[in-house]
């Protein structure tokens, strides 16, 4: 799998600020004997759930703002962004070379070794207890690959997945996906139209969606996003609205079958 060069060379924005609308709570289920927190946001009476998988920088003010805005869009969602990196996100000394970044991901973000599926499912169970009846996944960067892996599992509880500025997404890594995807690449990612075209041959009740943000760099909705920049802020709001619209359509399709 290849890693986009911008993922290795673009650091996190250090001066980002945002007053969180959500709160950090502890997941009910321990993962490998360890308690994990999650960032919960959105209206607590919503029956539509979203599990978010952040980028390699972990929690970040821009990332939380992005989640808050998705959660309050299109009628509202209960969004849970669980802790996938208990020791924190990638640090500056690992940036600059793809080998260093890949080594860090291999140590902290391996799908099996780092219990990605278990964390996502634990977050689902808490949202289910909170009244949610439908679930979608959103990832950023590395998190989009993790989301694709989760919805490639048999009997996945998720009705859709996707994400912004995806890393490692290709025809190969999405061949077993069992739900529609929404993909919002930046100018730094490969052409993902072939992925969407193949997914739309699978006969899902809602077609997959793709929109390229050629005016944005890799990471603009997460740790690398500087939303004090008006252009990035506008693109961030547009992305949040697109995700909200897609996941609302997915939830409606599921509700129509109940």
TrEMBL record:
Domain of life where this protein originates: Eukaryota
Gene Ontology MF terms in the entry: hydrolase activity
Any one Pfam family match given in the protein's UniProt record, by short name: DLH
Limits of the Dienelactone hydrolase domain: 38-194
InterPro entries in UniProt: AB_hydrolase_fold, Dienelactn_hydro
PANTHER family given in the database record: DIENELACTONE HYDROLASE DOMAIN-CONTAINING PROTEIN-RELATED, DIENELACTONE HYDROLASE FAMILY PROTEIN (AFU_ORTHOLOGUE AFUA_6G01940)
Record protein name field: Dienelactone hydrolase domain-containing protein
Biological source species: Linnemannia schmuckeri
Source organism phylogeny: Eukaryota, Fungi, Fungi incertae sedis, Mucoromycota, Mortierellomycotina
């Amino acid at each position: 799998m290849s890693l986009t060069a911008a993922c290795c060379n673009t650091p996190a924005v250090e001066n980002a600020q945002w007053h969180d609308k959500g709160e950090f709570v502890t997941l009910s289920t321990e993962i490998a004997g360890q308690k994990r927190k999650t960032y919960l946001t959105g209206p607590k009476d919503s029956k539509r759930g979203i599990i978010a998988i952040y980028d390699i920088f972990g929690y970040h003010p821009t990332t939380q703002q992005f989640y808050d805005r998705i959660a309050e869009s299109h009628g509202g969602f209960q969004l849970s962004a669980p802790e996938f990196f208990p020791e924190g996100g990638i640090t500056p000394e690992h940036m600059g070379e793809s080998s260093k970044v890949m080594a860090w991901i291999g140590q902290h973000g391996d799908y099996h070794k780092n219990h990605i599926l278990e964390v996502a499912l634990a977050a689902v169970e808490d949202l289910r207890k909170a009244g949610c009846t439908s679930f979608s996944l959103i990832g950023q960067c590395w998190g989009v690959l993790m989301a694709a892996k989760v919805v490639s599992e048999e009997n996945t509880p998720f009705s859709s997945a996707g994400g912004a500025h995806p890393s490692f997404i290709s025809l190969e890594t999405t061949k077993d996906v069992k739900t529609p995807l929404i993909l919002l690449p930046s100018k730094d990612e490969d052409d993902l139209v072939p992925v969407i075209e193949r997914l739309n041959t699978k006969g899902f009740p809602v077609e997959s969606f793709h929109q390229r943000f050629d005016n944005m760099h890799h990471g603009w909705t997460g740790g690398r996003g500087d939303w004090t920049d008006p252009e990035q802020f506008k693109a961030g709001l547009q992305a949040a609205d697109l995700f909200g619209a897609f996941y609302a359509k997915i939830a409606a399709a599921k509700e129509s079958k109940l």
